[in-house]
Structures are given as C-alpha cells and as structure tokens.
Amino acid sequence: MVLFASACGGDGGDSGSDGGSAGGALEGRGPITFATGKDTSGNLTNQVAAWNSQHPDEKVTVSELPESADAQRQQMVQNAQNKQDSFSVLNLDVVWTAEFAANRWVVELPQDQFPSLGNAIPATVETAKYRDKLYAVPITSDGGLLYYRKDLLDKAGVQAPTTWAEMQAACQKVKALPEGKSLNCYAGQFEKYEGLTVNFSEAVNSAGGVVVGKDGKPNVDTPEALAGLETLTNGFSTGEIPKAAITYKEEEGRRAFQEGNLIFHRNWPYVYALAGKTDGSSKIAGKFAVAPLPGKDGAGVSTLGGHNYAISAFAKNKATAADFIKFMASEERQRANVEKTSQAPTWASLYDDAALQKQFPYLTPLKASIEKAQPRPTVVKYGDVTAAIQEAAYDALTNKKPPKQALTDLQTKLSSLITN
Amino acid sequence: MSASAPVADRPVNKAPKSGKQRRHDEGTGKLAAILLSPTMLVLGLVVLFPIVMALRESLFQAGGVDPETGFVNEGSTFVGLKNYADIFSGPTGERFWNAFYNTTFFTVTCVILETILGVAMALVMHKAFKGRAIVRASILVPWAIPTVVSALLWKWIFQADGAANAIIGRQILWSTEGWQSVLSVIVADTWKTAPFIGLLVLAGLQTIPADVYEAAKVDGASAWQQFVRITLPLVKPALLVAVLFRMLDTLRIFDLPFVLVGPRKESVETLSMLAYDEAFNTRYGPAAAYATILFIYVAVVAFAFVKLLGADVLGDAVQKKKNNNKGKRVRKAPAGVPEAGLASGGGA
C-alpha cells in the first residue's frame, strides 16, 4: 500500500491550505496522450492536428474511450487506481471533478497560470473546482433549452412561455387548434438515469428550491422543492406529460419531438441541428424554435452540463499537458469547435458573436441558460447521490410514493451520504 | 489425492507381482502428475488465483473522505466479515433479498421455457424435410448474436414507440417497474438461448440409432410413447448438461436486464447487477462480497443439480468404473474434482 502521493504528484495533499503548492507540479515536456470519450463530431482530430503541427516535439495522441459516459469514467478510474501514466490529459464530465480531485487522481492547477478562465462563463469555472481549488479547465458547456413548436404557437397567437403557468396556458391554446388536438404538452427526460437527476434538479431549482445548498448540505425537504417536483407529477397525472415520457432519455424525447408529438420539449443544444435536418428525418424542420427554460415565477434554472480537461496525477509531461489544455481553452480553438460541432463553448464572448449567432440561433437563449445554471452536487460519492435522487424522483413520478414523502426520504438519504 | 495401494488386501504369495504392479501404478501416477502440472498451473492462475484474490478483497474496505482536507484516505483497511454483514442488514438487506429472488425467478422461469422450446426446436431440426438447412440456420441466428447486441435489438422492439407495442396495439411501457419489465427480460433471454439447448439436444438426438424407433413402430408405439419412452431417456444426458449450463448462465444474468430495463430497477435487479453497482462506485470490497455470495450460490446450485439429477457431466466412463470396479482403488477424488472445477467455472 502506498500511503503517500507519489513525489511527482505534488498535489499538496498534506498541507492543503497552501494555494500555490500546485504551481511547481506542472513539469516535464514531451509527447502526451489525451483520454476522451468517442469523438462523435469528428472535429477533435482537427483540433489535435492544429496543436501537433505547432508542437512537433510535444505531440498529442488521442486515446478514444467508449461512447458511454459510464464506460469512460470506468476506464479512467481503473487507469488512475493502477497509477498508470498512459493518460496525461483527461476529458472529465463536470460531475466527476470532485471524485477525481478527492482521490488525487488529477493534480490541482494554479489558477494564475490559466488566464483564459476569466473569459469563461463563471458558472462553468465553478464546475472545475473542488473545495474552492481548481482541478480542471472548462472546455465545453451544456445547458437545457426549451424547444417549442413555433408554427403552432404563432397560429395560436402566443409567445414563448417564461413560466410554467404560461406554458400550460399556451399548451391549452395550441390544443384547441385542429392540428394541435392529438399533441402532448411537454416532455423532458424521466427514465431512471442521470437525465432524471438533471430534470428533477431543474424542476426544484426553477421553483426556487435547492437539492444541495451553497453550504454543501442537502436541503431538499422544502416547500419550494415540493412545488418543483409536484409540477412534474401533476404533469403526468393530468396527461400534459405523456405516459411514455417515463421511459424517455434524450434520444427518445428527441424522436417524439421530431415526430411532431410534442409541443414543448426540454433537451440539450445538440437536438437543434438534428431536429432542423431537411432530409426527411425530422417532420418539424423549420417549425420549431428554442427558449430558455421556464420556471415557477419567471425564467427557469438549467442544470449545468459540459466537460472539463484535467491533468492526470500520474502523467509524465505535465507542463505540456497544461499547455495543451490552455491551447484547447483558447478563443481560437473554442470558436473552431463551435463552428464544427455546435457544442456549447465556455468562452463567454463567443455567445455574443454576430457571425456565430447567425449560424446557431440558439446561442442567445443558451447563454442565458448557462449563466443561470446550477451545477449538480459536487460530492465525492456522486454515483450514490445521483442514484438516491433518481430513486426519489422516479418513485414520485411513478406514484410509488407521494412527492412529499419522496423528498423527506431523499433528504434523509442525502444527509447520510454527504457528510461534509 | 494419491491412491494408497491397499497392500493388506492382497494375498502374501503374490507379493512380488503385486509389488511390480504397485511400482508400475505409482510410476503412472507420478508421470500423470508431471504431465498434468502445466495444466494445473494454468488453471490455478486463471481460476483459483482470481477467486482467492476476490475473497481477500471482500474482507477489505477502502478509505473514506478526510473531512479536513477533502481528500480520500489512501489504502484500505481490513474489516473482516463486515462487508458480508452489511449486505444482510437494513435497506441493503432488502435490496439483496429482492435481487436474490429476481435472480432465482429468472433462472427457474427462463430455463423451463428454454428447455421446452429448445427440445421442440431440436425435434424440428432433427426431422428430414425440404429446407431443413435453412430452418437449422435460422434457429441458430439468435444464439450467434452477442447478448448485448440482442439486448439492444429487444430494447428497440420494447420501446414506447417500438415494434412490440405496434403489434399489440396498446402502449405498454416495458422498461418501467412491474411485471412487463420482467416479462421483457424473460422473452429476450428465451429467444436468445433456447437455440443453445436446441443445439445440444440435437447433438444428443443424432446419436440415437434409427432402428430403435423402427422396433418401437413395429411394436405399435404411438409418436408420444416413442418420445417419452425412447427419445427423452436417450437424450437425457445431453439435455441435462444443456440445462445445467443454462442455469449457471442465467444465475449470473446481467446484460439483458441492464440494457433492456436499466440499472437499479427493483423488478429486475439481479445479484450481478448489485456487484456491478458497488464496483462502479469504486467500493470494491462490498462488490467482491456480493460476487463471492453469487459464486457460492452458483456453486451450490450446480452441485445440487449434479447430485440430484445425476447430470453426467463427467462422461460415462467414471460412472461405469464406479459400478464395475468394486473393491478397486480410485474412487472419490475424480468424482469430486470435476464437480468442483465445474462449479468454479460457472462462478468465475
């Protein structure tokens, strides 16, 4: 058993309070590897090629992990537990930051060495921190959007809703139209998986509640949280949310929206390009638009998604790894990535760029969504926390438990899991 | 394991001969041991070593988070049987027994259905008719598809807007909690593995000589009588091996419920899924404890099956030897060893 972090880790595990202790850790130059999930956009090769052409002695090799997030995390965890140096830079989902930092699998980063953080949307930088120390650099972000059938809303003479009540009213008006009769009002992602945690948190936050408070303590047994959860359970019981939505993940929901069965649909930005395809795969191309998520008394609060890049504690050439992360976080690379993949950038000014806005009309509502977005709980045992949240939300949505009971039980469970 | 020569049994005047005999025997034993040692070494490395490591792992727990620094304490501590005790206590206990019940229920129902269907398939494949080759090939397709792929296929079929609901004409939400999710797993598992039983039974059918049936026909036996009195008894050894293999497989079922219905769904959670869940959250000690319990369960079932039904997994030879070689030496060890080996094969 190795009881001390290896010397090259240098993550100040013993002092902890010394903010600059990580500064000296980023040493060594040479070839590095970049572990990332399957690159579905195909643009990563271009990004890495741009780096490799400028740094022939510090080439980056991409090691592509599986497409599923769980499988990616598993491989990175195994790699770290065996203290292997085969991954230098890790592409981490925002909810893994705490686990990787607490286990000292990634090194702390000196904030002064990453000036680009100042240009990122503040909410995204928060996801890269654990106990107020920086462990990663935000590269892509993600926020929920409300997709809606603009053609039907226009016909019914209503604007995009900003509150749940407005959304219900708009839905009634659309359903009064002959072509709106058979449609369902709304769906998100309610299958028992990570997406349910996202949707539940959004409902709770948009009603003014919290799942885990600013002080890191769970506080989910509140009237606000109950109002949020009841919005979803009532949606199911009145039929505004179709029964089948309990089986929806992102793709099932997207299909239902593209088939023209939904008036409103909560999903991620990636749907925009697919739903707008004019090759016949989408029946609603050109008939929809996006808005920020609605809330109880005003604009809603999205759950923050996205990916951060971190440096493995067992990597050899940490200085190169840091430079590569800076390179990927630069405005030029961020812009190139948006143009090619339509993934949400972290660089704030890109959202206001006229050329990009023309190409991606959802950038303005997306920025509003991300700026207000709430991160999911930053806890080491995130897997257990999200499982508990899913359990409670699913029980409430399937009428196994009344919402109040589900939240009370969830509070108890979370209190035992999060002992900060 | 070495058989001690029962010298006392032998008449004294034959001592020289028996001495020779004994030396010859001992030599064979030694030679056999030497020749088998590489195999045993490999088996020890790939079967025994992981089992022992898993057992050891199940007695440890990883460090928790230090509230001061926020870092996870490195290294793991020896906790004895605590991981096992935790499994049976409180909410975890309820979850465990639920998973235990699901695992057992899946095993019993799936194996019964698969056996009936598999035997029927074998009988069809065994008949001589036009297009037999195509029927044989098509029956084997499900078995040829990797389970995860077939799980995905069935997932599409069982989607809310999938083929199953289109055929039924009602919207059943197959992946939600309840009987329908259990049914979907049973259907998918049966579809996939009935051909396996069919294949093994077909092999058994083809060893039955045709003249047995001809004699039965002459005696005026009906088709049903032929099936019950001739086919089943003669195909029994092959069938029992097939059923045993399926039982060991189904006890470890993971991929179908995981992909079709999803993780942490009470209706279909199995023991393998519990072990996976713990390992996924980097709690390797409890995960190893779950795996060990499952391993023991599989071993017990396999042993009971072999003992009760006399599944002839060891081949005829040993049985015959047992019956004919009264007073001869080799007895217990060979009968026990392959059983143990088989059980660990099922669990590993």
Automatic annotation (TrEMBL), chain B:
Keyword list, A-Z: Cell membrane, Membrane, Transmembrane, Transmembrane helix, Transport
Organism: Kribbella amoyensis
Coiled coil regions, renumbered to chain: none
InterPro entries the UniProt entry points to: MetI-like (IPR000515), MetI-like_sf (IPR035906)
Domain of life: Bacteria
Family that this chain belongs to: Belongs to the binding-protein-dependent transport system permease family.
Keyword match Transmembrane helix: yes
Membrane topology annotation: Multi-pass membrane protein
SUPFAM superfamilies noted in UniProt: MetI-like (SSF161098)
GO biological process annotation, one example: transmembrane transport
Protein name from the UniProt record: Carbohydrate ABC transporter membrane protein 1 (CUT1 family)
Compartment annotation: Cell membrane
Domain ABC transmembrane type-1: 100-305
GO CC aspect terms: plasma membrane
PANTHER family, A to Z: BLR7065 PROTEIN, SPERMIDINE_PUTRESCINE TRANSPORT SYSTEM PERMEASE PROTEIN
Segments passing through the bilayer: 31-55, 105-125, 137-157, 227-248, 287-310
Start and end residues of each stretch annotated as Disordered: 1-26, 325-348
